[in-house]
Specification:
alpha/beta, two-stranded parallel ribbon, five-stranded mixed beta sheet
């Protein structure tokens, strides 16, 4: 299975920046967020098909896409952030394989921050079993240009750097 839930410790760091959670989880394994550690107002499941829905009305989005098809989620994110007419932040948790073309096509040119996580993320399987990954992971942060987004981007950098969650925070276009 490629269904792995984001660890609680990682989400606790994000909730320091987004204390109310997120407006949308577009690829949730459950319709109510149960057992996923994600606090969101709206959850879209595979049945809802978050790839076919517009995310434009949501201000904050967290997405831990299935690792076996995260490339299509990156393309969707790139499309959404480019077409929204409001301030918006989208955070994605993905594996780090820098030699893959999507890093150069869908991440480096438009992401506002890349938070390379220091340790390998230990995900949780639907059964509750811990799943150790054999690769590094990163939080990819896309954002529109606004003072609010810039403030949140700085808070993300500060929070993750201060608590040694990262080996590096890559600032791209800001």
């Amino acid at each position: 299975s490629s269904e792995f839930y984001t660890p609680k410790s990682l989400m606790q760091q994000l909730y320091k920046v987004f204390p109310d959670g997120f407006d949308l989880d577009p690829c949730s394994p459950t319709s109510d967020g149960s057992n996923t550690n994600i606090k969101a107002t709206k959850y879209l499941t595979a049945t809802d098909d978050g790839l076919s829905k517009s995310w434009s009305k949501y201000r904050t989005i967290y997405c831990n896409p299935p690792f076996d098809n995260h490339k299509i989620w990156l393309k969707k994110t790139r499309q959404e952030i480019a077409t929204t007419d409001q301030e918006q932040i989208i955070i994605m948790l993905i594996p780090v394989f820098l030699w893959y073309p999507y890093w150069h096509d869908d991440i480096f040119p438009i992401a506002k921050r890349i938070v390379f996580l220091r340790d390998r993320v230990v995900f949780v399987e639907p059964s509750g079993k811990r799943k150790h990954q054999n690769h590094a992971s990163a939080l990819i942060v896309y954002a529109t240009d606004s003072d609010w987004c810039l403030e949140k981007l700085e808070q993300i950098r500060a929070e993750f750097t201060e608590h040694s969650f990262v080996s590096a925070v890559y600032n791209t276009s800001t």
